Amino acid sequence: MKMWKIPKVAADDVVTGEFFYVDITTLQDMALNADNLVVGGNGWTLTFTFDGTNAAEKLANVQAMAAYLAPKFLEHTPVGLHRIEQQKIFKLWDGLAIATIHTETGIVRTGAANTALISIGIS
User: How many folded domains does the chain comprise?
Assistant: First the structure.
């Protein structure tokens, strides 16, 4: 088991003190849609919802986030995972403000800074 701690995002901002924990070793798929990225594993589904000034910018943000997350997720799947790594929690964007998350992932909303990532939810 490799736990990932992912901050909750709602209304274009990180929700202080609220997180989701998922076992990334059960990752099964990533679906890129017009304005969201759906990442699923055994017993969990994360949905990242994006905004943009038009459909193309929204899709570009979905693609940028998928390109950012995929290699990080794959590092922690069972194939390359060492036992010592299984005993730690990976903290995605720990302590980062929404502006820094936008910069780090390359997402953008033209004319409305730091509003490209609308939300991250779990089901």
Answer: 1
